[in-house]
Amino acid sequence: MGRMIRCCLQSALKLVNSVAGFVGVGLILYSLWMIRVWYRQTHAFPTADSWFIYASLGLGVSFCLIAFSGHIAAETANGHCLSCYMVLVFLLVILEAAITADVILNRDWEEDFPEDKTGRFNGLQNFIRSNFELCKWIGLVIVVAQAMSLFVAMILRALGPYYGTCYDSDDEYLPARLPLLRNQVPHTQYIGDPSVQHRK
Q1: Percentage of residues in the chain with pLDDT exceeding 90?
Q2: SS3 letters for the chain?
Q3: Quick one: CA torsion of 61, 67, 69, 74, rounded to 10 degrees?
Q4: What pLDDT shows up at residue 61?
Q5: What mean pLDDT is predicted for residues 3-11?
Q6: Dist CA 123 CA 145 (whole Å)
Q7: Among 9, 100, 157, 182, which is most exposed with the fewest C-beta within 10 angstroms?
Q8: pLDDT at residue 58, rounded to an integer
């Protein structure tokens, strides 16, 4: 029963952790698209002033790394891996909460960010304003997935290490077959041993 619960928790952690992987891949693809558009317009790669492109790329890579570490932590159920994963997710949630609080509470929040010469930052703002309901639900799904991953990781860590497997293997039934094999060994020796047959 305990093994079944652990396997279900590991599968749940992999499932909610995959949301971070999809978000990371999406951000990386979006960043590469922005770089391609910028290169086609200027015939040069974005400079350091194009902070929004590199920030999106870095955030996407961070999401992918967190998803990768979460998959390893879910597969191994190791306490140290789960602790590192929880710290990474917690720091990401704190960063998201800080940015969200700044946008909600500060009317001049746009001044906190440097000027983006690519114009993609303003384009993203206009897209969010025009599709606010969709973006709100996407953000809610991401936050809920991160909260669920923290919760499931804490439960797995509290359960402690487990050195078995989450599937039935034929090796589990090997000890039950060994006595039968051992009982047959003397009988085989009795038949094939000429000295025993001679004494008989």
Answers
A1: 26
A2: CHHHHHHHHHHHHHHHHHHHHHHHHHHHHHHHHHHHHHHHHHCCCCCCCCHHHHHHHHHHHHHHHHHHHHHHHHHHCCHHHHHHHHHHHHHHHHHHHHHHHHHHHCCCHHHHCCCCCCCHHHHHHHHHHHCHHHHHHHHHHHHHHHHHHHHHHHHHHHHCCCCCCCCCCHHHHHHHHHHHHHHHHHHHHHHHCHHHHHHC
A3: 180
A4: 94
A5: 86
A6: 27
A7: 182
A8: 92
pTM: 0.72
Neighbour-count burial of 15, counting CB atoms closer than 10 A to its CB (0-12 exposed, 13-18 middle, 19+ buried): middle
Long-range contacts of residues 42-51, Cβ cutoff 8 Å, at least 24 apart: 46/118, 49/114, 49/115, 49/116, 49/117, 50/116, 50/117, 50/118, 51/113, 51/114, 51/116
- DSSP class per residue in 47-60: -TT-HHHHHHHHHH
Residue type, 41: Q
Higher pLDDT, 89 or 106: 89
* Average confidence score pLDDT of the chain: 79
Kindly state the tokens that stand for 91: 């720091």
The per-residue pLDDT for range 150-168, each reduced to its tens digit, is 999 999 888 866 655 554 4
Helix %, strand %, coil % of the chain (to 5): 85, 0, 15
Residue 168's pLDDT is what? 47
* Residues in Cβ contact with 194 at an 8 Å cutoff, skipping those fewer than 6 apart: none
